[in-house]
Each structure stands twice: as C-alpha cells, then as structure tokens.
Amino acid sequence: MSKHKIISASRSGIDCDYTIDITSEESIRALYKQVGAFDAVVNAVGFCEYANFVEMTEEQWLTTILNKMMGQINLVRIGQEYIADNGSFTLISGIFNVKPIPLSIADATTSGAIDTFVKCVAYEMPRGIRVNAINPTVLEEAWEVYGDMMPGFQPVPGRLVGKAFERSVDGFLTGQVLFVDA
Ligand SMILES: NC(=O)c1ccc[n+]([C@@H]2O[C@H](COP(=O)([O-])OP(=O)(O)OC[C@H]3O[C@@H](n4cnc5c(N)ncnc54)[C@H](OP(=O)(O)O)[C@@H]3O)[C@@H](O)[C@H]2O)c1
After folding, report:
1. Of all protein residues, whose CA lies closest to atom 16 belonging to ligand 1?
2. How far is 167 from 164, CA to CA, in rounded Å?
3. What gap in Å lies between CA 30 and CA 35, rounded to an integer?
C-alpha cells in the first residue's frame, strides 16, 4: 500500500498518528473529523474474550460484541458520512466462524456477524462506497500466542493477510469475504 498516504490510529496511539477507541461512537466520529478527506478505512482490531461456552459470562459476550462486532459496524455506519465517493471499508473477521475451536465461541460468532454484515450492507452503501472483510486464519506472528489452542492449523504470514487488504482497497470488490487460509 506504499502508493497510499496511510494515517494510523489505535487505542493507545503508540506508533500511530491518532488515538481511537472503536467501542466509542464519539471517539470514532472525532477521528473522522480530525482526519479530514480519506478514501479507505482498513480495520484490523477487535478484542474478543475466550472461554468455554458454558463458562462465558454475559459481560464477556457483551465485551466481544461491543468490540469486534459493533466497533467495526460503527466504523462503517459513522464513516460512510465522511468517506470519499467510491471509497472502501475493509474489516477483520477470523477463521473460527468456519473452523471453530474450543474457547472461540464469542470470536466465531462475531466473526460470522462481520462476514454477514459486509455481504448484506454492500447493497445499501451510498455513493459507490465498497465494504469487504478479511477472514484470516492465525498469523505466523501470533502463533506463539494462539498455537497451543489451534492444533492442526497452519499459520499464514502477515504479509499475505496484507495482500488481501490490498486487494480489497485497490480492487473493485464489494460485499466480499476474502479468506486467507493455508
Ligand atoms: N492475530 C491473528 O492471528 C488473527 C487472525 C485472524 C483474525 N484476527 C483478528 O484480528 C483482530 C486483532 O487481533 P490481534 O491478534 O492483532 O490483536 P492484538 O494483537 O491484541 O491487537 C490489538 C490492537 O488493536 C488495538 N485495539 C484494541 N482494542 C481497540 C479499541 N477498542 N480501539 C482501537 N484500537 C484497539 C490495540 O491498540 P493499542 O495497542 O494501542 O491498545 C492493538 O493495536 C481481532 O479481531 C482478531 O480476532 C487475528
């Protein structure tokens, strides 16, 4: 994506241009207002709680829904007011909604919601705006954290996942889930 001017943001703002909390509508709107004109939004954050279904509390469910699901939906819902004509939103889901593992039920359920969201909302987007999701398996860079939970999975390099984001931003696809699996 070197041909683009990239503006970065995270919750802490460390190594980024701006701060944002995707669980806060005010924070999302404040960022869009500060940034000014932009053509694409790429989101790669969405905190999830991990627990067995019988042990997961409502609070853990709501935390995951607020972060991974509503946080991303709000990036699109509010962002469509500000993004340029023919702009694009690219969200993140994750492989557990098609290849579930123990402890992943909240991640799997909200990843499925994001995949469904992009497929359906694409029909409603104004001004030629596109919306896609990247659905990767575990990244090589995260294997140390998740590997023990994921026997039989093959991690993929983050560089490949980046390529899927690039296809979404620089291509013409909309309403698509781009899987990156090994
Ligand atoms: N890692 C993988 O292999 C993998 C594979 C498939 C899907 N995914 C999905 O990708 C997403 C990110 O996973 P990850 O492993 O990269 O997580 P991570 O390492 O914990 O990354 C978290 C990043 O998200 C930012 N962040 C967290 N909550 C935020 C919020 N409310 N508002 C704004 N920024 C926030 C953090 O910013 P600060 O550091 O500034 O707090 C940090 O930069 C998750 O939804 C995950 O399910 C990950």
Report:
1. 45
2. 5
3. 9
- Ligand 1 contact, 115 CB (< 6 A): no
Nearest to 114 by CA among 135, 94, 93: 93
Q: Is 144 contained in some domain?
A: yes
> How confident is the chain (182 residues) per 10-residue block, as mean pLDDT?
89 97 98 97 98 98 98 98 98 98 98 99 98 98 96 98 98 98 95
Q: Please work out whether the CB of residue 69 comes within 6 Å of at least one atom of ligand 1.
A: no
Going from the Cα of 46 to the center of ligand 1, the distance in angstroms, rounded, reads 5
pTM higher than 0.90, yes or no?
yes
CATH of the domain at 133: 3.40.50.720
